Amino acid sequence: MKQDMILILDLGSEENARLAREIRAMGVYTEIHPHDITAVELAALPGVKGIVLNGGPNRVVDGVSIDAGAAVYESGLPVLAVNHPGHGGLAAWSENAAEREAQIREFVFDTCHAEKNWNMENFIADQIELVRRQVGDRKVLLALSGGVDSSVVAALLIKAIGKQLTCVHVNHGLLRKGEPEQVVQVFRDEMDANLIYVDAVDRFLDKLAGVADPEQKRKIIGAEFIRVFEEQARKLEGIEFLAQGTIYPDIIESGTKTVKAVKSHHNVGGLPEDLNFELVEPLKMLFKDEVRACGVALGLPDSMVYRQPFPGPGLGVRCLGAITRERLEAVRESDAILREEFAAAGLEGKVWQYFTVVPYFKSVGVHDNARTFDWPVILRAVNTVDAMTATVEDVPFALLQKITARITAEVKGVNRVLYDLTPKPTGTIEWE
To answer: Do 132 and 105 lie in a common domain?
Structure first.
């Protein structure tokens, strides 16, 4: 393989992602795995030069203090314990940031003798080799939403296995305005991908009718996605793998053995137990900014690489509570206005993510001198590097006024516009 690796084992720390990014910033690749990794699993990981045991406040599980198994201590690899019980893991190890970095650097380079060979070219080369080894001469089905993650996966898999890849784009009725048409144009017409377009709008919305709980909505959407793919696979020959644009924040927020879930993601917690595909997830250890860097290295256009992130459940988690077609359309139309006005104001590409949310409650308003009882639209605009934390964009008030005027005039059933000022934490980026 092209890259050395430092393996981080999760013993209850809330700082795993921070530590991983710190080591990657030094030029050395890292992966985070459960504390109870087996000898077989450890031996299957390529290029491991050393292991960090990263403990913290969640080290006690079901009344028992967890520890790495014999496979780690008998591996012959250098081990660094960052596991002060009852304290804050990495932060408690060294309160001085410069000292902390120096300790990590000494372990990585002087003790483990790892090389600075973590870059996107080497990552891509490694993933191409791993995908070819996993897939062989068999065929892969890719869930292609047209978003950044699935687009980068598509480009990487085309390099790795070419025409063994079939892309399936499902229009579940929860996409942004004009998005299904754009996906078909870009991938089928411009990139010459094997693309199957599936119109499943009624199917998904019927399944979601009356479902208000966001976790249940995610699971329904995830399970129905898999069913659609299974049906498409049965029409093809030799499909044994399902590729997904899973990235590391998806896995973190869906929970680990020691950290409670923030929320399940449709491609992690929402997968059905009777899944009939083996998964191919070449981006699952990358943070969002690294996914974009990977897309650039693969030669994808900036318009695709730097487009806004879009949740797997789509507008389904922005139409809060039980989804109705009328509110869903209000989300879609207001989102289109927001994106159009941000682009006209020069904010496209400068703000990481911006979108609208329509809740299930209404409020009194006035239109044409008559009383209205309609929905509010909530605007959200945030900036982040890795999607783990986020700050709120300081949008000019005049622009907010213009967007408000357009939405209340052009979107049916809406009489108020609100702006969400909450960073992550305490809020999450999405509302559900």
So the answer is: no
Residues spanned by the domain of 166: 120-305
Mean pLDDT, the chain, integer? 87
Any known ligand binding at 151? yes
- Would you call the peptide bond into 426 cis, given omega within 30 degrees of 0 as the criterion? yes
Asked if the model's pLDDT at residue 353 lies above 80, the reply is: yes
Residue 254 has pLDDT above 80, yes or no: no
Residue 149 marked ligand-binding: yes
Residues 47 and 90 grouped into a single domain: yes
- Cα 233 to Cα 32, 203, 205, 300: the distances in Å are 32, 18, 22, 27
Residue 148 assigned to a binding site: yes
Q: Does 150 count as an annotated binding residue?
A: yes
Q: What's the first-to-final CA gap in the chain, in angstroms?
A: 40
Enter the pTM of the model: 0.71
Q: How confident is the model at residue 310 (pLDDT cuts 50, 70, 90)?
A: confident
| Residue 94, marked binder | no
Whether residues 69 and 193 share a domain: the answer is no
The reply to whether 391 and 280 lie within a common domain is no
CATH number at residue 374: 3.30.300.10
- In-domain check, residue 390: yes
For residue 49, the Cα-to-chain-centroid distance in whole angstroms is 28
The C-alpha atoms of residue 253 and residue 249 are separated, in whole angstroms, by 6
Overall number of domains in the chain: 3
Q: How many of the other CB atoms lie within 10 Å of CB of 122? A: 16
